[in-house]
From TrEMBL:
Broadest EC class assigned to this enzyme: ligase
Subcellular location: Mitochondrion
Annotated GO biological process: post-embryonic development; reproductive structure development; tryptophanyl-tRNA aminoacylation
GO molecular function: ATP binding; tryptophan-tRNA ligase activity
GO terms under cellular component: chloroplast; mitochondrion
Catalytic reaction(s) noted: tRNA(Trp) + L-tryptophan + ATP = L-tryptophyl-tRNA(Trp) + AMP + diphosphate + H(+)
Enzyme Commission numbers on file: 6.1.1.2
Keyword terms, alphabetized: Aminoacyl-tRNA synthetase, ATP-binding, Ligase, Nucleotide-binding, Protein biosynthesis
Coiled coil regions, renumbered to chain: none
Organism (species): Corchorus olitorius
Primary site of residence: mitochondrion
Range covered out of full length: 75 to 416 of 416
Family: Belongs to the class-I aminoacyl-tRNA synthetase family.
Protein name, as recorded: tryptophan--tRNA ligase
Length: 342
């Protein structure tokens, strides 16, 4: 079986973008691939954060994975920091990462500009190296990601090739290794729809956990009245009817796409159904569809989060399975890089 890994940061609350761009797609993938889904808590400390909230947010994120349908009889679910090899491999990889590659990353530029220099730790710059470690440790074939992570995945691929070139092949064989490639070079898996869910208050910027205003996103655990209120107040335009793909109507396109995904209709069906609607009618339709889609997830979430022993068990088992794969990779890398092994 081909392998897939993916994760979400336990910062803020999981929103519709994380769900439609990532988690929802995992559910279909777990049936045909060997899957590892983790909560990337080590990534969550790259910007100032609340130590009182981190462990809680990590648990909540795990519970959301399960509530959305991640099935632990098929997928391994674990917490990134529970598998030490992530940080270990990151250090080894960082020695092979040209600093210029990191300086070019759009997310670094955007987030560091917003946070201001004094708040930006080195980890925000080296974040993509940790992400590369997350992926390469498991010799992953595919990584399902939203549009925003494409550039980081490209860096992961280049880094894998560079390490294979620097330390793999004949050199590694001479040191007693199996020879050949150290890392598999992973491919991105961008979902055909939902890859970029936009903010409710600005159709040109992506829905994001770290955006200051909660009005800009629908959180997966938002109650019915909050969803209704956010949709009621979201940005609209004054064009007649509803339509996809009009560049002058990014908000309209975004909300129609969300409606399409949560109602499991085709784009054509939605275009037909909504073309003559006004904003008011469409908003009611969208709110109802969202509430209907999210309600069962919210019910399951409450069940899972109120059973901490079960959740701990899932995470312990997941970490054990993951560590077995990750340790083997990191040991190979030490060997290939010429370290004295004990
Ligand atoms: P932050 O603002 O803190 O970076 P985020 O909302 O971008 O948070 P991440 O934890 O960085 O969330 O990303 C988790 C997954 O969700 C990734 O696969 C990412 O590509 C996807 N994702 C994030 N935002 C969106 C979005 N607006 N549309 C589609 N996918 C998204
Ligand atoms: Mg992000």
């Amino acid at each position: 079986k081909k392998r897939i890994v993916s994760g979400v940061q336990p910062t803020g609350s999981i929103h519709l973008g994380n769900y439609l761009g990532a988690i929802k797609n995992w559910i279909a993938l777990q049936n045909s691939y060997d899957t590892l889904f983790f909560i990337v808590d080590l990534h969550a400390i790259t910007l100032p954060y609340d130590t009182q909230q981190l462990s809680k947010a990590t648990r909540n994120t795990a519970a959301i994975y399960l509530a959305c349908g991640v099935d632990t009889s098929k997928a391994s679910v674990f917490v990134q920091s529970h598998v030490r090899a992530h940080v270990e491999l990151m250090w080894l990889l960082s020695s092979a990462t040209p600093i210029g590659w990191l300086n070019r990353m759009i997310q670094f530029k955007e987030k560091s500009r917003k946070a201001g220099d004094e708040n930006v730790g080195v980890a925000l710059l080296t974040y993509p190296v940790l992400m590369a470690s997350d992926i390469l440790l498991y010799q992953s074939d595919f990584v399902p990601v939203g549009e925003d992570q494409k550039q980081h995945l490209e860096l992961t691929r280049e880094l894998a090739e560079r390490v294979n070139y620097l330390y793999g092949g004949r050199k590694w064989k001479k040191l007693g290794g199996r020879g050949g490639a150290i890392f598999k070079v992973p491919e991105p898996l961008i979902p055909p729809a939902g890859a970029r869910v936009m903010s409710l208050t600005d159709g040109l910027s992506k829905m994001s956990k770290s955006a200051p205003s909660d009005q800009s996103r629908i959180n997966l655990l938002d109650p019915k009245d909050v969803i209704a209120n956010k949709i009621k107040r979201c940005k609209t335009d004054s064009f007649p009817g509803m339509e996809f793909d009009n560049p002058e109507r990014p908000e309209c396109n975004n909300l129609l796409s969300i409606y399409q995904l949560v109602s499991s209709k085709t784009k054509e069906e939605v275009a037909q159904e909504c073309q003559d609607m006004n904003w008011g009618t469409f908003k009611t339709l969208l709110t109802d569809a969202l509430v209907e889609h999210l309600h069962p997830i919210q019910v399951r979430y409450e069940e899972i989060i109120s059973d901490p022993a079960y959740l701990d068990g899932v995470l312990a088992e997941g970490a054990e399975k993951a560590a077995a794969i990750a340790d083997a990779t990191v040991n190979n890398v030490y060997q290939a890089m010429g370290f004295l092994r004990r």
